[in-house]
Design a protein that fits this description.
Elements lengths: L1 H23 L3 H20 L2 H5 L2 E8 L5 E3 L1 H12 L7 E4 L3 E4 L4 E11 L7 E12 L2 E11 L6
Parallel strand pairs: 1-7
Antiparallel strand pairs: 1-2, 3-5, 4-5, 5-6, 6-7
Length: 156
């Protein structure tokens, strides 16, 4: 009798664990939502909207810029984008690849993909790569940490 009770308890525990795990599994919708957020970021960056670009980050987000600058929190990130988008990249546009999404948990994911910045005035495009840790906050996927990098120009 004790064996049957132990077996029933083990089955109950295993099935509860499986149900909980299935409920927490991220969906294709999450992956698509992350890609949409990345594309929306590209659009506001290309418009030079530092505030909207920073709103893509969590309040405690971190950005390690392509030039090695590090910002902590949305206010610092907005200030950095303001300097960038109204300074060396004024009038530039960015496009980011669809990239890949690797779901880590139901509310954390890694997005990575290539990017191309087209400076204003016809200068040659700058190519690079971005790795972002994304966090689902109140149903929206936001950047928890971003690491954009620019590739060096090809040798001549």
């Amino acid at each position: 009798m004790k064996q049957y009770l132990a077996l029933a308890l083990a089955i109950l525990v295993a099935s509860c664990g499986a149900t909980q795990k299935e409920a927490e599994m991220p969906t294709t919708d999450d992956q698509e939502a992350i890609v949409r957020e990345v594309q929306a970021f590209s659009e506001v960056w290309s418009r030079g909207d530092a505030k909207a670009a920073a709103s893509s980050f969590t309040e405690d987000g971190v950005r390690v810029g392509a030039m090695g600058d590090v910002e902590h929190g949305r206010a610092e990130i907005e200030a950095a984008y303001n300097r960038l988008l109204h300074g060396p990249f004024a009038g530039a546009t960015v496009t980011q690849e669809h990239g890949t999404v690797r779901m880590l948990t139901s509310d954390l994911a890694l997005w990575q993909g290539g990017m191309v910045i087209q400076p204003a005035g016809g200068a040659p495009p700058l190519k690079g790569y971005v790795v972002q840790l994304m966090k689902k906050v109140n149903g929206r996927w936001l950047v928890l940490e971003a690491h954009p990098k620019l590739f060096p120009p090809p040798p001549r």
